[in-house]
Known about the structure:
There is one protein chain. By secondary structure, the protein is mainly α. The protein has one domain. Helices cover 77% and strands 0% of the residues. Helix 2 runs antiparallel to helix 3 and helix 3 packs antiparallel against helix 4 (98-118). The two termini are 15 Å apart.
Amino acid sequence: MNWSAVGAVFLAAAVALGAFGAHGLKDRLDAYSMGVYEKAVFYHFVHAMGMLIVGSLPRLGTAAAGRVCWLLTLGILLFSGSLYFLAVSGVRTLGAVAPFGGASFIAAWGLLALALVRGDKAR
């Protein structure tokens, strides 16, 4: 899979969702919900940028990059996705999903560090 392209698509989505939040939701969300939404956009951006970078690291094999990027994808969907939905819907129980996305982010970056230290290459 072309993970740099996937990262670029996620970055475009982050820009669109950020603009939607700033312009389409500013009068509809209270300060708490807007803060949650902004946190979702921030983490979405950071990890999509990470995916773009991981996908183009020449020192990393495609298998290791794929595992890292799948974990980043899962993290964006679970963490940012649950926060987007929580902010817009007000359903606070959705906040319970976010830690699974956070754990996925942590696992992705840990796996990347391990793969780079070990010098994993495509097999």
